[in-house]
Amino acid sequence: MLEATKPQNSPDGAPLNPALEAESRIARIAVTVFPLLVVVAGIAGFLLPGVFKPMGPSVPYLLGIIMFCMGLTLTPPDFAAVAKRPWAVALGIVAHYVIMPGAGWLIASALNLSPELAVGVILVGCAPSGTASNVMAFLAKGDVALSVAVASVSTLIAPIVTPLLVLFLAGSYLQIDAAGMVLDIVKTVLLPVVAGLVARLFLKKLVARVLPALPWASAVVISLIVAIVVAGSASKIIDAGAIVFLAVVLHNGFGLGLGYLAGKLGRLDDKARRALAFEVGMQNSGLASTLAIAHFTPLAALPSAVFSLWHNISGAIVAAWLARRPLADKVPVQKTP
């Protein structure tokens, strides 16, 4: 999560730190350009499978880089927000790990997907929150503190929750090695995030210098993962591409809509509802791709690659739309003469 997405304004709304304002602009540009990078990477993987397919074994290490970058953006106050708002955070976690896995299973069943694609869709749904969800919440004028708290907790509990959900929902399609998934998630997600957090605590000045570059680093690495995944299933994309795209659009749409609805049913304010929409609807598709490649087939990783593209496009569109809408429960502030 970016420093610029944290509350940094004075009471009158003026930015306190010009550097953070500049970083905010960088975040907006990165979110705009990111989908284009992913599209280019996907095309490159499809047209040049011989170049990217041999890179398959490097995917876990690439994901580790992304999660390390995520760890660098976290601070102790981010975790303190969990204790301050346990109900809102708990609601976001439950909504995330109920709505997306359930929607993935329903969509895979309704579209009668092949076992590999069904597992791939379900696997995306069982992944923790996406790394760009905090930025989308920020751009949508949502509750960024809540967004960070939900994303952090969903990532930290993923080594236990994700394998169990995949085993429960996808076990009828393919054999699931839940224990192996736990180990893989610990190595590629939990340890890098903790390492990044430790580096942030003890190397503050150095980390402060690299923070503005983190959105670009993550975008490039995720794009490379997409190219590798697409290259691995390039021969089957023409046959499966349309149905996978439909499944991903439905899956992401349900997540964004039902995430917002969960916040409304939980009687959260509009800023919190906007945050939950992205925390539920945006997934760590890089992790899903890594697990699919390691435990299943390249075709099972295809939904993750498509999700990497689509949820950033849809997220940016929804964030822009919400940003233009006034907060439903915002009370006008009267200035004293």
Overview of this protein structure:
The protein is an all-alpha fold. Helix content is 76%, strand content 0%. The protein has 16 helices and no strands. α5 (86-110) packs across α13 (234-265). The chain starts with 17 loop residues before the first helix and ends in a 14-residue tail after the last helix. The model is unreliable at 8-20 and 331-335 (pLDDT under 50).
Task: Characterize this entry briefly.
The chain is mostly helical.
Features:
337 residues; mainly alpha; 16 helices
Strand and helix layout:
Elements: H1 18-47, H2 49-52, H3 59-73, H4 76-84, H5 86-110, H6 115-125, H7 133-139, H8 144-156, H9 158-170, H10 178-202, H11 204-210, H12 214-232, H13 234-265, H14 270-281, H15 285-295, H16 302-323
* Structural classification: mainly alpha
- Sequence stretches where pLDDT stays below 50 over 5 or more residues: 8-20, 331-335
Strand content: under 5%
Element order, helices and strands? HHHHHHHHHHHHHHHH
The multimeric state of the shown protein is single chain
Rg, please? 19 Å
Termini distance?
A: 38 Å
**Fraction of helical residues:** over 70%
Query: What is the overall shape?
Result: globular
Number of strands: 0
The total of helices stands at: 16
